[in-house]
Amino acid sequence: MEPEADEKSIDPECPIMHQKIYEKSIDPASQTMLQKAEQEGIETAWDRYERQLPQCSFGKLGVCCRNCNMGPCRVDPLGKKKPKGICGATAEIIVARNLLRTIAAGAAAHSDHARDAVLTFKKMSEGKIQSYGIIDEVKLLSLAYEYGIPAEGKSHEEVAAELADALLQEFGKQNSPILCTRRAPNSRLKLWTKLGIEPRGIDREIVECMHRTNMGVDNDATHILLQGLRTGLSDDWGGSMIATDVQDILFGTPQPKRSTVNLGVLSRDKVNVIVHGHEPILSEMIVEAAEDPELLKLAQEKGAAGINVAGICCTGNEILVRHGIPIAGAFIQQELAVITGAVEAMVVDVQCIMPSLGYLTGCYHTKLISTSPKADFPRTVRMEFHEERAHETAREIVRVAIENFPFRNPGKVNIPEEKQECVVGFSVEAILGVLGGSPDPLVEAVKRGSVRGIGAVIGCDNVKITHNFGHVNLVKELIKNNVLVVTTGCNAIACAEAGLLVPEASEIAGDGLKAVCKVLGIPPVLHMGSCVDTSRILVLASVLANYLGMDISDLPVAGAAPEWMSEKAVSIGAYVVSSGVFTVLGTVPPIFGSQAVTALLTRDLNDVVRACFAVETDPFKAAYLMLEHIDGKRKALGLDSGIGYNGRFTDPNRTPPGLSLL
């Protein structure tokens, strides 16, 4: 911990300090905590980012290689002073190999999450664990039918056991196709087969990435990147889709419900337990344990009014969409939650957890409780979570939090007032339910031009961009122009904090979208779940494409990740584009050291998978690119745009933004 600053020496009205904080986040609750951090001498991710500047230009361009011990090598992207690495690898080869390794890591994260979910599902079906059961029987039987498992004359547990075995086989397949790909339109399947990128087995694709990028193996940039597309597809149409389906069976398929979001959901008089990470196997049990009468009584004995569970990041999204449990913030707000001084326990599993939390919690009374056998962090309380003792371990964790409540320092507590209502839980099933069971009303709204198209906006937040600025302004620009937005992950949290996930937000939407939202009683931005649930978006796109007898790439749909930072986001980008959806990236990927790789990803992929990437850091310009793409698809379908562009860029002769970085 750094020495605490003298509060009297800090002027809270200092315009220089406020300008600096406003540059970090547009969220008032986060600004309050950032100011508190400065006053208390507490380090945050923003401080560490500033100390890293200037960041390595070779790394930013993707032209450094350390895949063997002859290096590390740094090559000149212009091919003048150092045109090749020691082995002879050019910028194109190095950039492509680095990108493929990133995709592999992201796919591995989602797919390992899926494997753990399936293994829990299998143990439950075999009666080896008692804490979990089958909540969505309809989805169980639907998925069993999809996998060719007969259900007649069998108990649900017997069906589940056979289904679990079938799902586990998806990871180890060698040549057979992953079965979830059959949800995609037939035209897309044929294209993947023609290109040789239809995923075989989830684990096989990830392992092959690592083999290909080993020194002296795959050294053709296009060939390398095609494997990246195939690995991305094994993530979405394999691991991510399996994780979503199994979690729906175990914990329930989300349906619309109201909740609240942002740091203001923390309680001043209750024990605050934050669950952070990505796997709901743990967080579901924490939610249950927090309602235990014995633990509630203990909390009262310790002077608390009760137990308050809140989420951070995507495990927060999981319990938000299924139970309406409040969410305290997104990835970049995890440190700020601790800085409130009101968190008794930060309970973490895997993914997107900053190792800084262990040092930060040492400045407060908060206990950082690490639960995953595969992940540990500095200065944690280790309480490994195993499904066989799920309920007991969850109770022990909550008990530790309760016992910590008396150690809260009232002088350090500052909980921001800001919290915002939101409506969440729009699974594909829920969306079709709102539409009356058929996609026809949405299709008709698109044909009329009331809904111009659909924008899929997802991804992390990132200190390189003013927190929530990219997310919120891009989404506002889209709904203002009658684009219905579907969202997952940290973008969904940002939209919730900005008040965009309530039906009343349709007042800032374009007239056409506003009318549709009022008739259906929905927000103009639909929260579909955690980052692994981005698979739901492509299932929805497939439902629409199959209903219309066309390919996903023919739909007036565009995607964006305005503030992405994780390797998982790179894998998501690979599978979204491979599935036919044009996607705009809001932070710059490390590819610009190679003109060939850049051209392939931002232009030439159109000729391969009928979609490509764009890179645009300005969210308003990014919205323009998405609208331009949507209008192009409408025109190709013979649909009039019908509604003029209401944003900043009204000059039809203006050079489209997003190409300056190329």
Structural class: alpha/beta
Largest beta-sheet characterization: 6 strands, parallel
The average pLDDT score comes to 93
Number of domains: 3
Name the overall outline: globular
The CATH architecture of the largest domain can be named as 3-Layer(aba) Sandwich
Radius of gyration: 24 Å
User: In CATH terms, what is the fold-level topology of the largest domain?
Assistant: Rossmann fold
Number of strands: 16
**Content of β-strand:** 5-15%
- Which segments are poorly predicted (pLDDT under 50) over 5 or more consecutive residues? 1-18, 644-662
Number of helices: 26
Helix proportion of residues, in percent?
Answer: 40-55%
Straight-line distance between termini: 43 Å
Biggest sheet, strands in spatial order?
6-5-4-7-8-9
Give the C-level CATH assignment of the largest domain.
Answer: Alpha Beta
Describe the model.
With 662 residues, the protein is an alpha/beta fold. It folds into three domains: 91-251, Substrate Binding Domain Of Dnak, Chain:A, Domain 2 (Up-down Bundle); 263-412, 3-Layer(aba) Sandwich (Rossmann fold); 426-636, 3-Layer(aba) Sandwich (Rossmann fold). Helix content is 47%, strand content 10%. It has 26 helices and 16 strands. The strands form four sheets. It has a six-stranded parallel sheet with strand order 6-5-4-7-8-9. A six-stranded parallel sheet has the order 13-12-11-14-15-16, sandwiched between helices. Helix 15 links the parallel strand 7 and strand 8 (367-370). Helix 5 (91-125) runs antiparallel to helix 9 (202-212), helix 5 packs parallel to helix 10 and helix 11 (280-289) crosses helix 13. The protein starts with 14 loop residues before the first helix and ends in a 26-residue tail after the last helix. Mean pLDDT is 93; it is low at 1-18 and 644-662.
